[in-house]
Q: What sequence folds into this?
């Protein structure tokens, strides 16, 4: 027997399996906790932005971990310079992790927060071995550049949704990572 109804109060499913758009839109306008969210950004756009930012978060955290690892394990004639530089970089990345995660939450979605989630989402590989100092620098340049590419991939979605807050965050992060990549590359010249 069909429970098909017409009009704005139509039921969620008919015998033929037709999903009712109103119920879907109401559900997607809710945050993770079921509260209604109206930021002036469509629910599906918020979800797409949050998914892009989850990749940014994963890359940022993975780069943070790699940079911290290299700070602990760097050796050689440039020890003092690199040890201090890596410390500045991982401290900056630690602050960035929080900013990105909080933006995801503000959009109404849970932020990934486990190594398993980050490993699935990140485009940056972990450092398993302890490389020589120049290889550390090269890996960090590659990580900074990978993060820049990940950030750039989120821009079109945020721009289409007119999400100025996310656009601003992405722009700030791009400036930091492009400058850091340049500074690291300069050490290799």
A:
């Amino acid at each position: 027997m069909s429970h098909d109804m017409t009009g704005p109060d139509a039921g969620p499913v008919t015998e033929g399996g037709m999903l009712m758009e109103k119920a879907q839109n109401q559900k997607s306008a809710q945050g993770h906790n079921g509260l209604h969210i109206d930021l002036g950004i469509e629910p599906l756009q918020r979800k797409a932005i949050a998914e892009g930012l989850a990749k940014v978060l994963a890359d940022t955290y993975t780069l943070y971990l790699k940079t911290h690892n290299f700070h602990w394990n760097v050796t050689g004639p440039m020890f003092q310079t690199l040890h201090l530089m890596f410390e500045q970089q991982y401290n900056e990345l630690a602050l960035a992790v929080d900013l990105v995660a909080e933006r995801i939450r503000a959009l109404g979605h849970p932020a990934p927060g486990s190594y398993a989630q980050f490993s699935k989402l990140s485009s940056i590989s972990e450092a398993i071995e302890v490389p020589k100092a120049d290889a550390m620098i090269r890996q960090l340049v590659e990580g900074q550049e990978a993060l820049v590419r990940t950030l750039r991939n989120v821009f079109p979605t945020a721009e289409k949704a007119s999400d100025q807050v996310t656009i601003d965050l992405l722009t700030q992060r791009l400036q930091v990572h492009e400058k850091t990549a340049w500074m690291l590359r300069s050490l290799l010249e």
